[in-house]
Amino acid sequence: MLGLSVMRRLLISGGMRGLRLQQLLSEETLRHLQTSPHNTRHISVISTVSLWPFSSQPRDFSQPNSSWSPEMHKVYDNYNALCDTDIENGEEKRGPWRKLPSYNRSIKYATGGIHLSKLIQAKARLFTRNVKEQGATFEYVVFVNKEEKRCVCVFQAGRLLEGAPGHVHGGAIATMIDTVTGTLAGFLSGPVMTANLNIDYRNPMPLGSVVLIHSALDRIEGRKTYITCKVTSTDESKLYTESTALFVSISVGHLFGSRN
Ligand SMILES: CCCCCCCC/C=C\CCCCCCCC(=O)SCCNC(=O)CCNC(=O)[C@H](O)C(C)(C)COP(=O)(O)OP(=O)(O)OC[C@H]1O[C@@H](n2cnc3c(N)ncnc32)[C@H](O)[C@@H]1OP(=O)(O)O
């Protein structure tokens, strides 16, 4: 959602950084960045500053780490295998599943963010990736299926997410639902913001649980993208939450105070 003008510049200039971005963004988002008239007025501003003052190889938090339980590893491996490339009749064939990378700064999806520094503190971090201790809070990986317009997130809830004794805080669950539904909406519709999020909590989720967050497109009506979401146990026998979310497409200007 952030730094779209900066992203556009990277896309125009191409190269390794652009490739990293293209791995993350859907064709819809890329098309928006490349064509939106809202983005053009920012280009001249950033063209005069040096880009990428931070690491050019930001850490991808969607990689397995030692805090992951055997169950987390197993489910991750299952979905990761669906992302493999098959060879059929000597031709490489990619399946519909992709693993999305995840960083701890929104601006790491784009560039150094000098242009955004008045809006976003240099110390800003993505909410779900702001605790350094592995496994303490949100451990998750999102896999997206473009053809079926849906995604699945494997989520392991850490001990610092406690709400009711021994169980995951409802706000932490809402955060993950917002993140996963928002990721899918952004993937399908380009830059969006959450307008409405409605959650029914059906069963308490024990701390340390590994769960699946299944998210799917319901419909798109003009600027509105409606997403449904269910959180289940990994064998899908237990239902933790059911939810719906509405995302509204925005222009970059929306984040800078102007309306569409
Ligand atoms: C390029 C991609 C880059 C990717 C990389 C970036 C890094 C990402 C990293 C990691 C991914 C993690 C992903 C996280 C995701 C989290 C997302 C959030 O949490 S966003 C924060 C919380 N949300 C807000 O703060 C919004 C605050 N609200 C607003 O700004 C506005 O109200 C907004 C944009 C929602 C709508 O405002 P208007 O002025 O643009 O549009 P109007 O005309 O009001 O509404 C448009 C249509 O939507 C309906 N609408 C609006 N709000 C509604 C509501 N609450 N309920 C029902 N309908 C609503 C309206 O009735 C209207 O419908 P009709 O076109 O007339 O049919």
From TrEMBL:
Pfam families found in the cross-reference section: 4HBT
One MF annotation (Gene Ontology) recorded for this entry: hydrolase activity
First-listed, main subcellular location of the protein, grouped into a coarse class: membrane
EC number(s) per entry: 3.1.2.2
InterPro entries for this protein: HotDog_dom_sf, THEM4/THEM5_acyl-CoA_thioest, Thioestr_dom
Catalysis performed (reactions): (9Z)-octadecenoyl-CoA + H2O = (9Z)-octadecenoate + CoA + H(+); octanoyl-CoA + H2O = octanoate + CoA + H(+); tetradecanoyl-CoA + H2O = tetradecanoate + CoA + H(+); dodecanoyl-CoA + H2O = dodecanoate + CoA + H(+)
UniProt keyword annotations, A-Z: Apoptosis, Cell membrane, Cell projection, Cytoplasm, Fatty acid metabolism, Hydrolase, Lipid metabolism, Membrane, Mitochondrion, Mitochondrion inner membrane, Transit peptide
Biological process (GO), any one: apoptotic process
Keyword Chloroplast attributed: no
Gene3D superfamilies, alphabetized: Hotdog Thioesterase
Thioesterase domain span: 166-237
Record has Nucleotide-binding as a keyword: no
GO cellular component: mitochondrial inner membrane; mitochondrial intermembrane space; ruffle membrane
Bilayer topology: Peripheral membrane protein
Subcellular location: Cell projection, Ruffle membrane; Cytoplasm; Mitochondrion inner membrane; Mitochondrion intermembrane space
Recorded family membership: Belongs to the THEM4/THEM5 thioesterase family.
Protein name as catalogued: Acyl-coenzyme A thioesterase THEM4
The gene coding this protein: LOC113116219
